[in-house]
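Re: the 199-residue chain
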Amino acid sequence: MLTLVSPVPTRWHRIPAGRKLLGLCLFTTALLLIDRPLLLLAPLALVAALYLAEGARFARHGLRMLRPILPFLLLVGAWHLWTGDPQLGAVITLRLLIAVAAANLVTMTTRLSDMITVIERLAAPLARFGLSPRVLAMAVALMLRFIPVMSDRVARLTEAWRARAPRRAGWRIVLPATLGALDDAEQVAEALRARGGLG
């Protein structure tokens, strides 16, 4: 399984997964209490400092991981600008950027197996209602696994389209990207069945 952990060792790697996930939850919750763009610059600077504290190589790697969300952020900002509420657009855009960057920092410095263990422990009470903690943890793991895969596939499909047509790809790559995702899901399901499932 593809790992999202940064190859650059940092001090954040040594912090237990549970503490990092708890800190991420509290941090992102606090973001919802800030409703002014200028005030959001402080947590943005904090997250940027956490990246830069581990060196330029680590920060560049983190920035590459954030590239897929930039078009979405521009779209959200442009929509609110067009509807006449630029301040709300700036708040939403900054919140999303900061939250995703913080989550990316946790993902880059936490092994997937450690995250699965934490999620299984948190979901243990749900077993009383018939929900398997192992299945929930695996679902989260697979979601994290496929985020960079889908981003890479969309980027490759876009490059292939540009090499063959002068127009922008736009919606035309949605179908091949979806079919590729379904094919990946089928292969993962076959692999899980071959290994005895999740039991």
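The mean pLDDT is 82.
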